[in-house]
Structure formats: C-alpha cells, structure tokens
Amino acid sequence: MSKTFPTRLLSLALGSVALCLTACSNEPTDAQIEAWRQEAIAQNDQIAAFHANSKEQQEWHLDIHGQTKNGKPVKLTWQQLQSLATTHVPTTDLNHPSNLGEVFNFRGVSVATLLDRFSSADPNTEITFVAFDAFRSTVQQVDARRYPIILALERNGKPLARDQGGPLYLVFPQVQYPELRSKYDDQFWAFYVTDLIIGTEPVNLKVGGQYLDAAALEKLPQVTIETEVNYKIAWPTGKVKLQGVRLRDVLATAGVKLPADSAVVVRGKSPIYRNGKNPISLPMAAVQNCNLLLVTRWGENRQLIPAKMGGPVALAYPKDCAVDIPEKRWVTLVEELEVTAN
Ligand SMILES: Nc1nc2c(c(=O)[nH]1)N[C@H]1C(S)=C(S)[C@@H](COP(=O)(O)O)O[C@H]1N2
Ligand SMILES: [Mo]
Questions:
Q1: Is the pLDDT of residue 100 over 90?
Q2: Distance of alpha carbon 338 from alpha carbon 251, whole angstroms
C-alpha cells in the first residue's frame, strides 16, 4: 500500500511532462514543471487523505453499555453498522450553516432498532451518546422509539467525513417532525459518536488489576467540595457540591504502590481520554497532598451522577491545592486508574 503513493506521484509528474514534450513546441518552463509537481502532490495528498479516512471508518465501532439485554456491553463493528444502516432520513443539517435550507439524504442506523435489539431498560430511561471528544448527547428512550433518529454514516450517498460529523453522526428527522427542532436543537447533534449508554452504567473502576464497585467506594471516607466544574455538558453553571473519595484512598484500598516519582493516569471512556501521547497524568505529589477526588454524587441532595452528566464516576479538582498540576482536565465517565513512571 505504502508503495502506491510515491509511484503514483512519479507517474503523474512524468505523464504531464511527457504529454507536453510531444504536444508543445517549447520545453516546459521551470514554473510549469513546478506547477505540475504541486498538482501531483495535491492529488497525492487527496488520495492519502481518502485512504486515511476510510481506514478510520473501517476501524470505527459503536460500543453499547449500561442496561443491555444480557448486562454485558455490545460492540458493533463498522461492517455491522453498515449492514444495520437501512434508515434514510431526509433533513437539513443544523451544523452546515453555508446551506442551512438544503435537505440532505442521511443514511444510518436507527436508534430504535438498536434499542429493540439491545436494551432491557424501561421506556423512561434516558440514553446517552458519547463522542470521540467526550461530548455527550442524551435522548429520551421514548423519543428514540417514536422518531426515526439515526446514527448516520452517509450523506447523499457519500460517507460522512470527519468535518461533517463522521464517521457516525447523530441525526434527528427535524424536517419530517418539526417538533424535534426545539427539543433536540443543534447541541444534540453529536459528531463522531463512539458509545451509547443505556441508562447509567454501574460503577466498575479498574485500579491496578482490580475492579471496584459502588459499595467499595462507599466504604472509603467521603469528601465534599463545592466548586465550579468543567465537565461542560448538562451541569449547572456556578458552584456545585460534589461528593466523592480521594484518589489516594482508592489506590490504597486496591493495594497499589505509590512511588514518589510516579504519576496516576486517569482514563475515561472517550478515546480523547485514552490518548497515549497525551494522557491525563497527575503527579504523585498532587495525589498525595491534594484532595483529588473521584466523585459519584452531586448537588444538595447528593444524587448519583447519571450518564447524562458523565457519571457514575468523574474526576474533580479541589480549588486549594499547593502542588502544581500542569493541566486540570476534568474527566467524565472515569473507568481506570493506573500508576506509571512520571
Ligand atoms: N462530538 C461533538 N459533537 C458536537 C459538539 C462537540 O463539541 N463535539 N458540539 C455540539 C454543539 S454545542 C453544537 S452547537 C453543534 C455545532 O457545533 P460547532 O458549532 O462546534 O460545529 O455540534 C454539537 N455536536
Ligand atoms: Mo453549541
């Protein structure tokens, strides 16, 4: 595969030169050759981008968690998604302001079909879509069953590019059902969807080869802070109460050693939180000296944190921490802690 690009580039360039050498009376100027070269490079880049894009699509999948029929997560491969994608939705696309009035033909997987096949939750349960960038969009299950809401993978017969919300884009049939316009406005149209959570998952935190459940976390000392949060979606603005347990207590209860020169990597569900090149890595000094928290409850009534808000477990930072943390990234849908060399 890697051979085709340079070969192609060369033949494009040579082809242009040969063509002109016979047809033109003059030798091509340096400027012409440079123009052809640029053209060949641009074409080559396009081919490379196309292949990268289709590779990303081939590897894309949808994970379904929470209240599934057998209680286990379901993984749908790109191929399975393609064969399930039999629902067509003609609609305008809120996120393409250049042609707001244009009606596109989206093809995708009906969310109702996914729920019929995989959901065991009662009709009042919310479902939450999670995206590559940790964006979340929560829909009422009754609406997903009543309307043809789809995870689109094609628009007007073409795969959805990344800048069109692809490979999987949550699309609402707002032309056929105008009442959806206000209920599910542009904020709900999630791009690059990776996960669907039916209801909220139970706590299942992986720490040093062990899995801790809600009961294990409840046994640890509970800490409450009041702070502004940066979980972005579905949280009130201003200060909120958060209740949770200290990161260091969680690690200790799992029997994990905490060398002074190590760091704790926190991983959430979304791929953006699992980027090995840019992990969420907390220096051990901060873990030891600050009340970095894994929170499970919020608000005056200490309610459990639903998937809609990024629960059941999220990472929170206290205001007052003497140790410098390079970048405070608030992590939702926390699934794993790992101690690594710093
Ligand atoms: N994955 C993902 N989808 C998303 C968003 C996002 O940040 N990530 N932003 C939402 C919001 S708030 C809006 S208004 C629309 C358009 O977002 P844009 O203006 O950033 O393109 O996409 C929605 N879908
Ligand atoms: Mo928005």
A1: no
A2: 9
